[in-house]
Amino acid sequence: MRVLGLLSGTSHDGIDVTVVDFDETDGALHGAVLLEDSIPYAPELRARLVAALPPAQTTLAEVCELDTLIGQAFAEVAATAAASVGGVEAVCTHGQTVYHWVDAGHALGTLQIGQPAWIAERVGAPVVSDVRIRDITVGGHGAPLVSFLDELLLRGRPGTSAALNLGGIANITVVGDGISAYDVGPANALVDAVVVDQGLNDLGYDEDAAIARTGAVDETLLTALLADPYYALPAPKSTGKEHFHLDYVRALLFGREISTPDLVRTLTELTVQTVAQDVRAAGIGYLAVSGGGCRNPLIMEGLRTALPEVEVVLADELGASADNKEAVLFALIGWCTMHGVPAVIPGGTGASAPRILGTITPGTGPLRLPEPVPVLRSLTLR
After folding, report:
1. Which residues of the chain have pLDDT under 50?
2. Does the pTM of the predicted model rise above 0.70?
3. Count of alpha carbons within 13 Å of 67, Cβ hemisphere only?
């Protein structure tokens, strides 16, 4: 079954897409990645999205319009990708997270927009969407869902291994005697917010750490950032831009003025220190890194310096592209949902039991599901 995976992450800079051709025999799943790409949002759409995100106030009218506009943008990307490989049999879309509701350490709700009916109409295939909420209904955080893919890719490695994704938020999956997965804290979210606010470039992020390299760490600010109670919470836990945003940083400056390069350098160091702290505490010996932050040389250099006993590699070594691993995840979730396979590991999200994820929007024809697969034993990507 060819499944197209789509998402826009917490960096909300564009749409990642992949097509994976899955073949299953006796629970052994093999996936051939046929296509992977990333398409930036149109600047005006991204600007509207950024303006509507917490802590900003918005309206239901704006949410409705963004739901349509983002759905149409996803549909255009999906239609182009599907046509380029000769068609797909299913699509799984994550959409765009605009709010993740966490109260007293528990996830109570989550909202992803990007209306899937537009995708179903353009592509003609059934679309799996709204994949996080079912996990939350059984006590999970709805995040990090990538722990399902990570566990399959890390399964069988000796010692304690981990997969780290550095998107807007950093999340980690630790696999040893058991599995633990959670959001570490901000990866690129705070730096991106500063870059956009200050208009430092047209990209919306610090490419190659060019800005951070011209600054120095402000130890007073770093100490205040590291004191955030979130880092001391036990896993499972999740967070997002509802907590880590530009006004959050401004409040911790207590009216002090520091240069923009120093601010960006300090926020970059925050990612290094929070991740390194958790890697050391878990006794991890092998760390596979993915997401936009893995292309930030200061972050990668910082992690290798702070973790000299840890083998720090890119996720490509596991068979999943470091730049596109989460799109592969959603293709996998789509395959699992269509085949009746739960795509949640309780240790990964805090859910009390495995669950089949998502809602299915039919394509242009009748909805016909394949025979259920009793168990997924392994995954190999190529």
Report:
1. none
2. yes
3. 13
